[in-house]
Every structure is written in C-alpha cells, then in structure tokens.
Amino acid sequence: KNDLYPFAEYKIKQVRTHKTALNKEDILKIMDLALPAGTLAWHARNMFIFSFYCQGMNFADLAKLKFVNIQADRIVYIRSKIGKVISIKLNDKINEVLSNYNTDKEPTDYIFPVITDEQQKEANIKDYRDAANHALKRWAKKLNLDPTLSFNTARHSWANIGKDLNLPIAVISQGLGHNDIRTTQIYLDAFQNEVVDGAN
User: How many angstroms separate the CA atoms of 76 and 87, rounded?
Assistant: First the structure.
C-alpha cells in the first residue's frame, strides 16, 4: 500500500553518463583504416561509418535495415526505440558503403550481415554488436582514439561535430530522431527534410 511504501519521497539523482565523441579528423582516420574485405573488422568499420553519415543511426536500427528501406534517394525507416519515422537523404559516403553490399540482393534482404536467423534476431544483434564493439576498441588502441569507442560514438560524434559547426540544437535533435527534448521539441516540426539533409 502507498502509505506503507518507504521510498515514495526518495528521488535518485541522475548523473550524466560518459559520452565518447570523435572529431572530424578521427572519423577520417577510421575511414582510411586498411582492413581485409569481408572480415568482421571490415564490416564493423563500414557500419560505423554508415551510422555516422546516417545521422548517428543506432546499431539495432542499422542491423534491421533492408534494401526496401532505400526509397529513391532516401533511407526511410522506423526508429525502434521511439517508433518515429526517420528519413535520411543518401550522400556519397552512404552510397560508398552500400556499394559493398548491394550485389545480387532482394529488396527484403538485410543490408548488413548481422541477422542470420529471424527467430534469434535480437540475440544476433546483441552478439554482433558486442563483437563489432570489440573490433572498434582494437582500432581505438591502434589509432590512439578514446578506448571506450563503440557504436554509440558514431551517434555522439555526429551530434558534437554538428554543434562544432554551429548547427542549431533543434536541427541536431531532429537529425538524431530525438523526441524527448522538451526545450527543442517545439521547433523541430518547423524543419523540413532539406534543412536536416543540408546539415547531414
């Protein structure tokens, strides 16, 4: 009962978590990293760069992306975490990554080789993300980057580089697909795709 619950008045203070973000030069270092084609490290690098240029697309959404999500000159998908439709204009860097995967593929095929068993989809995503993040940490050591490098870093880097370029916080928020930032949410609906496309 509420009158017997001892924690009704108790609040846990929220602490900001450590966010790893790379600068433009570090992103270029990862892009230029020579890796044997077809290896886990090669796929992980491609997905990291793809995530960055897709406005920090998170790993689960990236893993679930299918060729049918490419519509004309855009990638259109529903962000798993919040159920919001995200639309990203294709650019040269995104197309460069896609060119490694689009040979002899059906529209319903996954773009990246993460999900191999539909019945074990979530387990596939978790296992591949863990292995890919391990590969990222090896690059971090090799390239003298932050040792906590992970797929979340691509997302944080896109936002921070945008901030460094003096993009409005509302444009960055919309690009990331945020829907819970109350101070900027009022402005987000006013931006058309062209604004976020230009920012990306």
Answer: 4
pLDDT in tens, 35-81: 999 999 999 999 999 999 999 899 999 999 999 999 999 999 998 88
Cα 115 from Cα 113, distance rounded (Å): 6
Range list of H helices, the chain = 24-32, 40-53, 59-64, 92-98, 121-143, 151-164, 169-176, 182-188, 193-199
The 3-state DSSP class for residue 182 equals helix
Look at residues 86, 102, 98, 89 and name the one whose alpha carbon lies nearest to residue 50. Answer: 98
pTM of the model: 0.81
Helix axes 169-176, 151-164, angle to 10 degrees: 160
CA 48 to CA 31: how far, in whole Å? Answer: 9
Of 35, 63, 33, the closest CA to residue 51 belongs to 63
Nearest to 133 by CA among 107, 146, 152: 152
CA dist., res. 41 & res. 44, Å (int): 5
